[in-house]
Specification:
Shape: globular
Distance between the termini: 75 Å
Order of helices and strands: EEHHHEEEHEEEEEEEEEH
Oligomer: single chain
Number of strands: 14
Helix content: 10-25%
Length: about 300
């Protein structure tokens, strides 16, 4: 192995440490290159085909009585129709500014939040930009003081301004709100089908905001609350992972539209952790708790 001479400012040479030999990098194969860039190639190829079709239409325009503007509109519509479908990441980014962490606290303002039980920690979603928040009733039930933490870190006390026990829902009003508070977009559950993708965002075990994805497993389900006191009806069943702390959080479409409020999970054991069956109250019922039409 050769040693490289290194010269100091005095001009004298000193022997540097031997240079490590860089192992040769094997050339990338066509299959590996295609796997890495396949999606981009498909989109680029599609764009080329649409553009070629547009040019052909333009060349034939005089014969068909088309104008250049007609061709441009047709090409734009074709490109828009081939936009990639939104992902769970897109849904998360859309809903995040409207998701809040809800805490049920003792009466003392300086109480240690970390000492609180997990049953007093949950999630909420802003549905009116004046600080009106939807959450589960069991998240705030019995709490002496309610605190919400907004996306930007702002903490505020909140008060219950409405309840709907038959749907395990509570409506909160935050006393202080961020300047740029965003209300979530609500979508009717009409036309939803089992198998359609959904995303849940919340604070499982106080960790978050966390996102999980799955599909609608069923509609019109019934669920008995863990205390055995109520049977909730007309629920959305889904398989996106949720755990204690997700309660009150939004169940959304890939477009970021709220279709339900997460209210419970089914587990035949006593561990209260997710095994694949979660339930959400349809947003029509949830918005009804505020006394507003959501659409």
């Amino acid at each position: 192995m050769k040693r490289a001479a290194v010269y100091s400012r005095s001009g004298r040479s000193r022997i540097a440490a031997p240079k490590a030999e860089v192992p040769a990098v094997p050339p990338i194969t066509w299959r590996e290159w295609r796997n890495r860039h396949g999606r981009g190639l498909r989109l680029a190829g599609l764009a080329v085909l649409v553009l070629a079709g547009g040019i052909l239409l333009w060349l034939l325009a005089p014969a068909k009585g088309l104008t250049l503007a007609d061709v441009e509109v047709a090409v734009q519509k074709a490109l828009e129709a081939q936009q990639p479908a939104p992902t769970a990441a897109d849904a998360y980014e859309s809903i995040l500014p409207s998701v809040v962490h809800v805490r049920g606290l003792p009466d003392a303002p300086d109480a240690d939040v970390q000492s609180e039980r997990e049953s007093q920690s949950g999630t909420g979603v802003v549905i009116v930009d004046t600080g009106i928040i939807l959450t589960n009733l069991h998240v705030v039930h019995g709490a002496k003081r309610i605190q919400v933490v907004f996306h930007d870190g702002l903490e505020s006390d909140a008060v219950v301004i409405g309840v709907q026990p038959e749907h395990d829902l509570a409506v909160l009003q935050a006393k202080i709100i961020p300047d740029d508070l965003y209300a979530a977009t609500l979508r009717s559950t009409a036309g939803l089908r089992p198998g359609e993708p959904v995303v849940a965002v919340g604070f499982p075990f106080g960790i978050g905001p966390s996102v999980s994805a799955g599909v609608i497993s069923g509609l019109g389900r019934e669920y008995q609350t863990t205390d055995g006191k109520r049977v909730l009806t007309n629920l959305i069943q889904f398989d996106a992972a949720v755990n204690p702390g997700n309660s009150g959080g939004p169940l959304i479409t890939p477009e970021g539209e709220v279709i339900g409020i997460v209210t419970g999970l089914l587990n035949p054991s006593e561990q209260r952790v997710f095994i694949g069956i979660g339930f959400a109250v349809p947003i029509e019922n949830a918005a009804g708790a505020v006394g507003l039409s959501p659409f």
